[in-house]
From TrEMBL:
Protein name (record): Adenine DNA glycosylase
MF GO annotations: 4 iron, 4 sulfur cluster binding; 8-oxo-7,8-dihydroguanine DNA N-glycosylase activity; adenine/guanine mispair binding; metal ion binding; oxidized purine DNA binding; purine-specific mismatch base pair DNA N-glycosylase activity
Role: Adenine glycosylase active on G-A mispairs. MutY also corrects error-prone DNA synthesis past GO lesions which are due to the oxidatively damaged form of guanine: 7,8-dihydro-8-oxoguanine (8-oxo-dGTP).
Reaction catalysed by this enzyme: Hydrolyzes free adenine bases from 7,8-dihydro-8-oxoguanine:adenine mismatched double-stranded DNA, leaving an apurinic site
Cofactors required: [4Fe-4S] cluster
Organism: Nereida ignava
Alphabetical UniProt keywords: 4Fe-4S, DNA damage, DNA repair, Glycosidase, Hydrolase, Iron, Iron-sulfur, Metal-binding
One GO term of the biological process aspect: mismatch repair
Length: 345
DNA sequence: AATACGTGGGG
DNA sequence: TCCCCAAGTAT
């Protein structure tokens, strides 16, 4: 019974590594070019709970706009949030900026897991990924892909998240001292392309031989997971008001909580039976369409109310944005949906 | 420890 | 249609 070998996976990775904008191309790597820690870090933050396909364009946009960590550190908060709009998990954008400013202050990125994990937005996964990929520290990297691969490799049936310590032990055991960063990316690539959640392609897997789940025919049912709770549906009202000068009334949402720090329309609270909370005492018209949106832990149905006012009266906590300066792309997706409905009304 | 936190794509 | 899930972190 052969034991899984990191070299077998690295050999596969050297041939099959997917090209990504944050990876050093093989030719340059061979010439000794080291990855840019800023780009590695940026990619890892964006890749948290987000697919490579979605991240690619955002990464290119961000690094073009802010080529270095010092550039990003000097950016306006609202500018960064607008660039992040649509990518989700907006606390990442707020922490991205905090982290950039901390690193800029330090003068350079810390190079070790222990130092990196102290920075905002960097947890166990990201600290391990950056220290290994950018700085060759052999930190075991465990994300959802690695968990799945380990659960199958060792045929572990303990459900997640209880299985994490056990899976981490296997991850650490398999992580090589040399090329730990490449190895981590190799396991993640394997999980994304071959050892997939559904229909794993065991027939072309470089770890076909040692994989216990493959031997036992249990690969497709692993990893086990504890059942999740049902999603409630909440209701709310969004208010889109035009000034007769062409301006729109918007708000920057509070730092904490859902869509924190993002631009959005004034809304009621979101609950079973929302109480009307229009931002202005004018004649509102209910649009004959609703916004449906699914968040991580609840569904949302928003009614959309529209109105027109004369001039641009001051409204506490809200601000008017001139039409020429208004960019729907700066809104989180749910707010973009509201705009799509309101503009047609 | 358990919950909050987005979004888009695939089966 | 609906459910799953994707390179997790903060509290």
């Amino acid at each position: 019974m052969t034991h899984p070998n990191s070299d077998d996976l690295l050999q596969w990775y050297d041939i099959n590594a997917r090209e990504m904008p944050w990876r050093t191309p093989p030719a340059e790597k061979q010439a000794g070019v080291k990855p840019d820690p800023y780009r590695v870090w940026m990619s890892e933050i964006m890749l948290q709970q987000t697919t490579v396909a979605t991240v690619r364009d955002y990464f290119i946009k961000f690094t073009k706009r802010w080529p270095t960590v010092d550039d990003l550190a000097a950016a306006e908060d609202a500018d960064v949030m607008a660039y992040w709009a649509g990518l989700g998990y907006y606390a990442r954008a707020r922490n991205l900026l905090k982290c950039a400013r901390a690193v800029s202050q330090l003068g350079a990125f810390p190079q070790t897991y222990d130092e990196l994990i102290k920075l905002p937005g960097i947890g166990p996964y990201t600290a391990a990924a950056v220290s290994s990929i950018a700085f060759d520290e052999p930190s075991p990297v465990m994300d959802g892909n690695v968990e799945r691969v380990m659960a199958r490799l060792f045929d572990i049936h303990t459900p997640l998240p209880a299985a994490k310590p056990e899976l981490y032990a296997k991850t650490a055991e398999l992580t090589p001292r040399a090329r730990a960063g490449d190895y981590a990316q190799a396991v993640m690539d394997l999980g994304a392309t071959i050892c997939t959640p559904k229909n794993p392609a065991c027939g072309i897997c470089p770890w076909w031989t040692p994989c216990l789940a493959r031997q036992n025919g249990t690969a497709a049912e692993l990893p086990k997971k504890t059942p999740k709770k049902p999603k409630p549906t909440r209701h709310g009202i969004a208010y889109v008001v035009h000034s007769d000068t062409g301006a729109l009334l918007l708000e920057t949402r509070p730092e904490k909580g859902l869509l924190g720090g993002m631009l959005g329309w004034p809304t009621s609270d979101w609950c079973d039976e929302p109480s009307a909370a229009p931002p202005l005492d004018v004649k509102w018209t209910k649009v004959n369409a609703q916004t449906l949106h699914t968040f991580t832990h609840f569904n949302l149905r928003l009614d959309v109310m529209v109105a027109t006012v004369e001039g641009v009266p001051m409204v506490s906590g809200r601000h008017w944005v001139e039409k020429h300066a208004f960019q729907p792309s700066a809104l989180p997706t749910v707010m973009r949906k509201v705009w799509d409905i309101a503009r047609k009304a």
